[in-house]
């Protein structure tokens, strides 16, 4: 029975069992042992045996009593549990490594620090870490795990990472050590872990490269933003300045403009018109516009700016932000003013010269001709027809003298030079009343003697131009003119109750040539004054002019 039982053992097990039985004989103690056995189909089973010796009266072993049981399922289950435990331990190590890498990434660890720590961290996550060595090569530098060496018998697993700069992770395993056999699935898990680590490195490095490019782009933008000669700005829908460049501070003299209101910087005389125009632009959803305005510097000086703006709207069509470039055109404006002043001065000189030529040249000739025609001797021996012709010639000479004086006075109003602006306006208004066909109310609050010759002449010309427009275009029944001087500023307010006009159609801005309004603007602007017009079809016209004196 025993021989047959032992024959069922695997050859390697037979010797172990016989050695075990001999030990039992000498020790005379019970013992538990396990061995593998196979059935007729060569299927392997594992049995556990409890063997106890039976002794006679003198203590000799006469036989062995054994009890055996099949523990194959139990052994297989233990192996499964052991493999499962191995897997769980590996997963814990993998999660720990991935969490560590995530910590490095989220805390902004540099590439060098990350790779330096990663070599050792990855080695520790491997099964049988003492038999594994890790080397990371990146950007001409090498990072190694602790106690790094290359065993005589080894295997290598290599994975690459990186985009613009390529790198690789080399995992070296000591194959000469067989004391710790490793299931193939563990190797596969480490390969998957390597892939995951490389993907994380790729994502992080790409993020760092993108951030670096953004920083460089921001630096280039900031250099351009701060060093451009024109003012670059942005403001919200209420006109609060959000950002300005250095040029804004240099041109306007403020230490900082951010947080200030754009409207507080505009000259008060222009603020209502600009506010109205900007509201109309935003109400139409216009995406860009050009605005020319006067801005006060920190020292109180006026700077002329030309604003080119782009409007960014929210989904509800409210204004998100207004971006713009403001060019300082003060020097250009001064040149234009000087140029215009020269033109106007030259024009006035030519008017004066022409008036003098009429007054001093043609005037005396006509007066001499009148004296000659009025001699009594010419009336002797004249027929009725000849007397009629003489009378007609005398009338023509009177008309020519009157027209010459009128033309001369219009070219250069002598009364303006002789009696001042107030008398010149009153005289001119009285003449217009005779031919205008409408009432004219002239109201002069204070004496206008403070106005200089240029200011007085240009106010007279502007008033004359406005009256001429009302005669030609307004079809009005009443005109009101108010003049005053306060705080060294001469104000002229002109209104009529005529048919009015559409300002956008009339193009009454600075470059207009219609209705003489462009000429009015040029004259006042050449003297650093301001002009604003307001009109609607059927509602008359309103003009406000301010001129420093």
Describe the structure in your own words.
With 549 residues, the chain is α+β, with helices and mostly antiparallel strands. It is 49% helix and 24% strand. It has 15 helices and 17 strands. It has helices at 2-7, 11-27, 72-106, 111-125, 184-227, 246-252, 262-265, 271-283, 330-373, 384-411, 414-419, 421-436, 453-474, 503-506, 517-526, and strands at 31-38, 44-55, 61-70, 132-138, 141-144, 154-161, 167-174, 231-235, 241-244, 288-296, 302-313, 319-328, 439-444, 478-486, 489-496, 530-535, 541-548. Strands 9-8-12-11-10 form a five-stranded antiparallel sheet. A hairpin with a 5-residue loop joins strand 11 and strand 12. Helix 3 runs antiparallel to helix 4 (111-125), helix 3 (72-106) runs parallel beside helix 5 and helix 13 (453-474) packs antiparallel against helix 15 (517-526). The radius of gyration is 54 Å and the shape is rod-shaped. The model is unreliable at 506-515 (pLDDT under 50).
Helix-strand blueprint:
Layout: H1 2-7, H2 11-27, E1 31-38, E2 44-55, E3 61-70, H3 72-106, H4 111-125, E4 132-138, E5 141-144, E6 154-161, E7 167-174, H5 184-227, E8 231-235, E9 241-244, H6 246-252, H7 262-265, H8 271-283, E10 288-296, E11 302-313, E12 319-328, H9 330-373, H10 384-411, H11 414-419, H12 421-436, E13 439-444, H13 453-474, E14 478-486, E15 489-496, H14 503-506, H15 517-526, E16 530-535, E17 541-548
Parallel strand pairs: 13-14
Antiparallel strand pairs: 1-2, 2-3, 4-5, 4-7, 6-7, 8-9, 8-12, 10-11, 11-12, 14-15, 15-17, 16-17
């Amino acid at each position: 029975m025993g021989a047959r039982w032992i024959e069922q053992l695997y050859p390697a097990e037979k010797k172990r069992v016989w050695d075990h039985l001999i030990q039992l004989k000498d020790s005379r103690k019970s013992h538990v042992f396990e061995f593998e056995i196979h059935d007729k189909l060569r299927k392997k089973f594992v049995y556990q045996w409890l063997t106890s010796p039976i002794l006679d009266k003198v203590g000799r072993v006469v036989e062995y009593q054994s009890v055996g049981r099949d523990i194959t399922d139990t052994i297989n289950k233990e192996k499964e549990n052991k493999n499962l435990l191995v897997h769980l331990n590996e997963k814990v190590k993998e999660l720990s490594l991935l969490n560590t890498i995530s910590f490095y990434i989220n805390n902004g660890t540099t590439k060098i620090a990350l790779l330096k720590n990663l070599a050792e961290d990855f080695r520790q996550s491997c099964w049988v870490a003492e038999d594994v060595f890790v080397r990371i090569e990146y950007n001409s530098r090498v990072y190694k795990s602790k106690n790094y060496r290359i065993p005589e018998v080894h295997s290598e697993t290599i994975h690459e990472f990186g985009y613009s700069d390529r790198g690789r992770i080399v995992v070296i395993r000591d194959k000469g050590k067989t004391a710790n056999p490793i299931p193939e699935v563990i190797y596969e898990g480490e390969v998957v872990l390597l892939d995951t680590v490389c993907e994380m490195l790729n994502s992080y490095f790409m993020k760092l490269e993108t951030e670096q490019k953004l920083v460089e782009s921001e630096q280039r933008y900031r250099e351009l933003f701060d060093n451009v000669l024109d003012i670059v700005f942005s403001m919200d829908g209420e006109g609060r300045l959000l950002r300005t460049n250095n040029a804004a501070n240099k041109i306007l003299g403020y230490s900082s403009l951010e947080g200030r209101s754009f409207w507080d910087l505009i000259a008060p005389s222009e603020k209502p018109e600009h506010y109205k125009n900007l509201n109309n632009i935003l109400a139409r959803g216009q995406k860009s516009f050009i605005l020319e305005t006067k801005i006060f510097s920190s020292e109180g000086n006026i700077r002329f700016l030309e604003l080119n703006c782009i409007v960014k709207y929210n989904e509800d069509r409210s204004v998100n932000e207004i971006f713009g470039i403001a060019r300082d055109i003060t020097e250009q404006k001064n040149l234009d003013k000087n140029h215009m002043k020269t033109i106007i001065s030259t024009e006035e000189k030519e008017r004066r010269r022409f008036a003098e030529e009429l007054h001093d040249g043609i005037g005396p000739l006509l007066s001499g001709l009148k004296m000659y025609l009025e001699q009594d001797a010419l009336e002797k021996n004249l027929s009725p027809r000849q007397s009629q012709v003489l009378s007609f010639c005398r009338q023509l000479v009177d008309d020519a003298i009157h027209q010459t004086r009128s033309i001369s006075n219009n070219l250069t109003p002598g009364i303006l030079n002789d009696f001042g602006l107030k008398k010149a306006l009153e005289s001119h208004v009285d003449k217009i009343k005779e031919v205008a066909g409408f009432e004219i109310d002239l109201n002069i609050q204070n004496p206008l003697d403070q106005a200089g010759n240029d200011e007085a002449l240009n106010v007279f010309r502007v008033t004359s131009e406005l009256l001429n427009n009302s005669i030609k275009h307004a079809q009005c029944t009443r005109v009101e003119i108010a003049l005053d001087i306060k705080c060294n500023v001469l104000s002229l307010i002109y209104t009529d109750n005529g048919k009015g006009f559409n300002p956008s159609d009339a193009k009454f801005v600075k470059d207009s040539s219609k209705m003489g309004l462009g000429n009015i603007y040029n004259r006042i602007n050449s003297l650093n004054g301001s002009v604003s017009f307001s009109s609607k079809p059927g509602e008359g016209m309103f003009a406000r002019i301010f001129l420093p004196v």
